[in-house]
Design goal:
heterotrimer, A mainly alpha, B alpha/beta, C mainly alpha, A: globular, B: alpha/beta, Rossmann fold, 2 domains, six-stranded mixed sheet, three-stranded antiparallel sheet, 9 helices, globular, ABC-2_transporter-like (chain A), transmembrane helix (chain A), Transporter (chain A)
Chain lengths: 262, 266, 264
């Protein structure tokens, strides 16, 4: 599966390399789109010193970790949520008659290297936030761990969204509420939301493990829900659990497609 | 090579049960060249999907090269070549050569073997002039030849083509037909194609399967098919008559269900 | 007796636009669902901000929540995330030459269809998020319902004027996806969709409130909330509608010269 994915991504990258100017413009566009969120945060903190108990550098840290994970996942695997287009256009049939994993084919299809622009913006924001926060090494080691876990969690969300489209082929936008919605959710401290929502995001759909719980650990903040701070270290476990669920859902989706023909 | 026994496929469309394919049984021996005919919506594409493992049957049994397509889709994919006339298996933005190279890697074909096969296909399909052109810039005829080459690089025992000549001009059609005939004769590749173009059938196939309302209406040679409707000599007229008579009464199939000469008086 | 049989050309085009989009109602409902989810998320962020700064930008907390769901409701009818027109594809395929030689002006043709589309999406994608917002958070009642509807309609016309310019620009610019991205950035940020423009600081805030995108989501919301004087807001929208449509007419003429006379 990894080999197939790498082969296809490389092919699409070469195809994109034919249009250098277009690539540069679109990468710049992705960079600016990433910057919009930062502009919003800037406007908010032009009006207040703290949002739900968090200052600008802390909000940038939470934004940066989540956005870096999301932008990376979106660039590498986000095209999984185009599955309804493949179903409608019949290109899924073409993928099914190849002797390689369907998920890898869908994820790599139309790979757009220009999305690196948004990844770069997110990394820059995270860099600035870390420089301002001065986090001791004893807790900073968790930052790369949480970003990687976040990539796995968001990729699982994209896959779940894709699996959902096997059922809702005519309404693929529903999946956006979970994928892009999940990204939007984590841009701000989860303390702005109703505690019941945060509980749901901890125990049901583990989006709180992208940046909120590990972020509380890194920032050395108490948990408004009262959970001990070591629960922030559970991000990799939460990511693997969600990945397993997503894999099962995807298989069920393919099986449904092949047994119902729609 | 292909074995279908009482094959059936049911769809549920808005709570209605539609029998897209029912009770379809046929056998294709290695090296045969078979055309699958039938009016629009007769169940040809559904049958192709079940043969290639895209769709699981709801009843009956199929074996393609000894494998159950529904269970062994990936293993089967290495042994069959599939061409869809209406959509391409090539990568739209890549030059044709890169698309073929990508297929080599996906199908794990040895580099040396690949080069020999590609050289042969380049000559027979006349690909040389547009190997480095991106697929989206190819004419339909060029694209179809590219698609056929892609389906044969792993030297499959069975080649399945869904309307391979659709939309092609007369010259491109002749080239594709010529190639398929040679491939079948020289490599012994089993070929099953669906088509609406009776010229394909007349020039290529010794055997015709006629599918109508999801079941097998005729299985036999072209001459047998002609004999079905007395007084008609061109195959075009014969098939038009058969389609028209079946359209009138969708419930009772007017065609004899068994191969042979008895005319349509069921 | 098909409905609309006696309609003259442009209302009929609007009716076709309505029907054409009504055929994709599952997609519209999915859009409404997504708009609602994002509305809920944005509402919590705005509540946190307004709890820190009560009365910010002249809005109460209830006003801010209402603003949030109103702007989410604008996404569908005003196509804040996309172009929503067939024009770019028709330009790429060359079919636009057929449109340009019709005896009816292309811009008016597109506007009629777009108004029909907007009317359907208002029902399918604006009403559900607003109702959900009312049920979950409670939203305030409109101060001037008639002026609000007029303002929404003008907002759709302004948004059409802008999208038409962007779409037609692909006659000259090769990379229409880049243009669409640029339009997305400008529209989402300057329409009030991300934050109310009334809280953007200093001269930057004044600038954003004078740009055409402010006529899309911000102006109708302010008319609804009574935070802007209806007559002033409607005049502001009408001004931008006139300017953008006039630019569109000029650009159409240039496009006809380029496509029909020069042959692409």
């Amino acid at each position: 599966m990894i080999r197939t994915y790498a082969l296809l991504v490389w092919a699409w990258t070469r195809a994109a390399a034919q249009y250098r100017v277009s690539f540069a413009l679109m990468a710049a566009g992705a960079f600016v789109i990433g910057g919009l969120d930062i502009a919003v945060i800037w406007v908010i903190f032009a009006n207040t010193d703290s949002l739900a108990g968090f200052g600008p550098a802390e909000v940038m840290f939470l934004y940066g970790t989540s956005e870096l994970a999301f932008a990376t996942s979106d660039m590498l695997f986000g095209n999984v949520d185009r599955i309804s287009q493949h179903i409608k256009a019949g290109t899924l049939d073409v993928m099914l008659v190849r002797p390689v994993a369907t998920w890898a084919q869908v994820a790599a299809d139309r790979f757009g290297p220009h999305r690196i622009g948004r990844v770069v913006m997110a990394a820059a924001v995270l860099g600035v936030a870390l420089a301002r926060l001065d986090i001791p090494l004893g807790r900073a080691w968790m930052v790369p761990v949480m970003v990687v876990s976040g990539i796995v969690i968001f990729t699982s969300m994209f896959t779940l969204g894709g699996a959902l489209q096997f059922l809702l082929t005519d309404a693929p936008e529903v999946a956006n509420a979970f994928t892009y919605g999940g990204a939007m959710l984590n841009q701000y401290p989860l303390s702005v939301y109703d505690p019941r929502i945060v509980q749901g995001l901890t125990y049901v759909l583990p989006l709180a493990f992208v940046n909120w719980r590990p972020g509380l650990y890194v920032l050395d903040r108490p948990d408004p829900l009262g959970l001990p701070s070591w629960t922030g270290l559970l991000s990799p476990a939460a990511a693997l659990a969600l990945a397993a669920v997503a894999a099962l859902a995807w298989r069920a989706g393919i099986r449904r497609y092949r047994s119902t023909g729609s | 090579m292909i074995d279908a026994a009482e094959l059936g496929r049911v769809f549920r469309v808005r709570r209605q049960v539609v029998h897209a394919v029912r009770d379809l049984s046929f056998h294709v021996a290695p090296g045969e060249f078979v055309a699958c005919l039938g009016p629009n919506g007769a169940g040809k594409s559904t049958t192709i999907k079940m043969l290639t493992g895209i769709l699981a049957p709801t009843s009956g049994r199929i074996r393609v090269d000894g494998l159950d397509p529904a269970r062994r889709r990936t293993a089967l994919a290495r042994r069959i070549g599939v061409v869809f006339g209406q959509r391409t298996t090539l990568w739209w933005d890549l030059p044709l050569r890169d698309s073929l190279e990508l297929n080599r890697l996906l199908y794990k074909v040895d580099r040396k073997v690949f080069r020999d096969r590609l050289d042969e296909l380049c000559v027979l399909l006349d690909l040389g002039a547009f190997l480095t052109t991106p697929v989206r810039q190819l004419s339909l005829g060029q694209r179809m030849r590219g698609d056929i080459a892609a389906a044969l690089l792993h030297d499959p025992a069975v080649l399945v083509l869904d309307e391979p000549t659709i939309g092609l001009d007369v010259v491109s059609k002749a080239e594709v037909r010529d190639f398929l005939r040679r491939r079948n004769a020289e490599h012994g590749t089993t070929v099953l194609l669906t088509t609406h173009d009776l010229g394909d059938v007349e020039r290529l196939c010794r055997r015709v399967l006629l599918i109508d309302h999801g079941s097998l209406a005729f299985d036999g040679t072209l001459d047998d098919l002609r004999a079905l409707v007395p007084g008609r000599t061109s195959i075009e007229e014969v098939v038009t008559d058969l389609y028209l008579s079946s359209r009138g009464s969708p419930r009772t199939p007017p065609l004899p269900p068994v191969p042979g000469g008895t005319s349509g008086t069921a | 007796m098909t409905s609309g049989a006696a309609l003259p050309l442009y209302p009929r085009l609007a009716w076709y636009g309505f029907r054409r989009h009504a055929a994709y109602w599952p997609a519209a409902l999915a859009g409404a669902f997504t708009n609602t989810v994002f509305g809920v998320l944005r509402a919590y962020v705005l509540i946190a901000l307004w709890q820190a700064r009560p009365g910010l930008g002249g809005y109460s907390v209830a006003d801010a929540v209402t603003f949030c769901f109103l702007t989410q409701a604008c996404i569908g009818p005003m196509q804040l995330f996309g172009i929503g027109l067939d024009l770019p594809q028709r330009i790429r395929s060359g079919d636009v030459a057929l449109d340009l030689v019709r005896p009816a002006p292309l811009q008016l043709w597109c506007l009629s269809e777009d108004l029909g589309r907007a009317a359907f999406l208002f029902l399918a994608r604006s009403v559900p998020p607003a109702l959900a917002g009312a049920a979950l958070f409670g939203i305030v009642a409109p101060r001037a319902p008639a002026a609000f509807l007029a303002s929404v309609t003008l907002g759709v016309v302004v948004s059409f004027g802008w999208r038409y310019l962007v779409a037609l620009a692909s006659c000259w610019v090769m990379d229409d996806r880049g243009l669409a991205t640029l339009s997305l950035v400008l529209t989402t940020f300057f329409s009030g969709l991300m934050l109310p423009l009334t809280i953007f600081p200093g001269w930057f805030g004044s600038l954003t409130r004078a740009l055409p995108w402010a006529a899309m989501a911000q102006a109708p919301s302010d008319v609804y909330l009574g935070t802007a004087e209806p007559v002033r807001a409607l005049a502001f929208q009408a001004l931008w509608a006139t300017v953008l449509l006039a630019l569109g007419a000029l650009l159409t003429r240039a496009a006809r010269r380029k496509v029909v006379i020069q042959g692409g």
